[in-house]
Structures are given as C-alpha cells and as structure tokens.
Q: What sequence folds into this?
C-alpha cells in the first residue's frame, strides 16, 4: 500500500507505505548499503569503489514519481490521493564514519551545492510543491543506517510545520510589513544571550521559545528565501556555521549527539511565498542532558504543546562554550 489520506479532523495529509516495514535496519558495518561497492566486497546501493557525494532514489519510498492507485476508495469525508513526489537519499561521503561534524567547510559547501541542485530539480516537477531536506542522526531519533546521510522528501503539498510557519509569517507581514525571521535575526543579534555562533552571513542561536533544550536554528542574516538565493560566499558561510554547530554538538557531552536537522525554505509550487519564506535550518537533539532524553509525551503528542525543562538562555551558554572550542 502506498497512498495519502486526509485527516478530516486536522486537514493534514498522512502518508502510508506498508513496504517500509521491511527496510534495512542497523546492519553490521561490513554490510552497510551506503558504503562503496569495493572489489571482492558485497554489492551496495552505490556501485562505485569510491565517491564524494552520492544521491539516489530511496528503495523504500513513501512518495514516487508514478505512484500506484490508492488501495482504498476515497469519499467526501475521507479523501485519498496517490503518493506523488520523490524520496531521495544523500550520502555525504564514502567514509562510514565521516559526517558533517568531521568535514571541513569546503566539503560541506559541496554538500550544500548538491542540496541546492536537488531543491531546484525536484521543485521544478509539476507534482512537487515543497522540497524538504533533512538528516536523522543517531539511533535515538530512529535512524536505521549508521553511515552519515540525509534525505530529501519532495511533497505534493506544503507539509504541516512549514505551512504553520508560513501562515505565521504571512500574518506578521500583514501586521508589521516585515519578514518575521528577519525581525527574529535582528532581535537575537541585539540580545546576544541566545546566540551560539555566527559569521558574516549566518547566525546560530537557541530559539526564544525552543521546543528542545539544545535546539539550535541556523538562519541567513539577510532575507534569502532558499538555497538558490545564496551567493557562493554565502553558501560557504552557511557550510562553515553548519559544521561548527555539528562539531559543537559532539563536544557538548563528549559523544556524537543525535539530532534531526530540518531545512526550511520557500515552497516550489509558485513564487507567492518569497516574501514570507526565510531560509533556515532547525536542529533538534532529543537529549536534555548527557544521560537523559526528552521524550514526547502527553502534552507534546496529545495536545501539541511542548514543555521545555530548561531556559534557552542557559543552554545557549553551554552550547556557545562547546562551539567556541571548535573554532578556537
């Protein structure tokens, strides 16, 4: 079964892909499907002896270019639609242990260029409205393969969280005449207490209303709707700060910190979102201390209301120290 169903209670589309139950789950290193296919070794997803960055279609997709017909009939109350779109895997390196935290800025910049290319190509497809680039890192966030990699989902509609952000940004623009993220950047630069790292083009900070204790947003300091709006020097600056934050996370507790990295940028269905879309990355580690995770429970899952057990200003101090040590 591969299809999308609309929840009449929330107006949100949900994806169903029963074949994903059989996807590869934490294989031993010698059978990693994301490593190169080397002479005498087992075949992998990548039939090359070595590589820099590789992109390929996910073998267990929830969204595909030519989806099958839904398995159930639609009705007025229960709309059903084909799962049109794309799921891609982005493998960062042929090294099984080489992630963003271990890369230098130039190598991360090449990864940024790949992201920009995929955003442009997938976004140009008629069935795609939103291109979502992300990385799940660590078993604590449900990763099924240890080899450093990210994913790209090309959705046929704007998914719920980006849509909520865009609605808030549109309301802010109507009331104040300004981009809400531009205003946030200005306020964070002025306050300074939640900033953890910065350069001339990008700012990294713990959000004022952070959902997770060590959540960090990396934001373009000027209004840029997507990766395609960045100059080459800005892409390098973005890469530098992304690497600094990833490496700082690893220094925070002395181990590779699990996280979800989510990239938010303009929808690709039309040009109507440029004024309210502001490129940013949200990193959400589940740890609230070295030994404890923040679990989503009653208030978060049942009511959608997050409770943070820490003060963003306090966690920013600890993160700033960890990230300063990276750049020292």
A:
């Amino acid at each position: 079964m591969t299809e999308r169903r609309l929840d009449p209670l929330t107006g949100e589309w949900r994806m169903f892909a029963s074949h994903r139950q059989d996807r590869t789950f934490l294989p031993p290193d010698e059978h990693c499907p994301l490593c190169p296919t080397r002479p005498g070794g087992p075949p992998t997803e990548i039939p090359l002896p070595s590589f820099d960055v590789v992109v390929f279609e996910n073998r267990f997709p929830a969204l595909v270019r030519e989806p099958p017909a839904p398995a159930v009939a639609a009705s007025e109350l229960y709309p059903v639609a084909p799962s049109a779109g794309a799921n891609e895997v982005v493998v960062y390196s042929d090294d099984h242990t080489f992630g963003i935290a271990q890369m230098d800025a130039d190598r991360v910049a090449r990864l940024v260029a790949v992201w920009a290319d995929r955003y442009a190509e997938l976004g140009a497809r008629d069935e795609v409205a939103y291109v979502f680039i992300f990385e799940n890192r660590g078993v604590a966030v449900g990763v099924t393969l240890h080899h450093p990699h990210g994913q790209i989902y090309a959705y046929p509609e704007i998914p719920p969280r980006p849509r909520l952000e865009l609605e808030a940004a549109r309301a802010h623009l109507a009331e104040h005449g300004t981009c809400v993220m531009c205003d946030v950047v200005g306020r964070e630069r002025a306050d300074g207490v939640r900033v953890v790292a910065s350069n001339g083009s990008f700012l990294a900070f713990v959000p004022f209303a952070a959902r997770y204790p060590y959540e960090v947003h990396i934001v373009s300091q000027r209004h840029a709707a997507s990766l395609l709006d960045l100059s080459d020097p800005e892409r390098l600056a973005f890469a530098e700060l992304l690497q600094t934050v990833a490496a700082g996370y690893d220094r925070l507790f002395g181990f590779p910190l699990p996280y979800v990295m989510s990239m938010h940028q303009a929808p690709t269905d039309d040009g109507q979102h440029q004024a309210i879309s502001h490129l940013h990355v949200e990193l959400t580690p589940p740890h609230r201390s070295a030994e404890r995770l923040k679990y989503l429970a009653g208030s978060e899952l049942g009511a959608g209301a997050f409770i943070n057990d820490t003060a963003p200003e306090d966690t920013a101090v600890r993160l700033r120290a960890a990230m300063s040590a990276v750049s020292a």
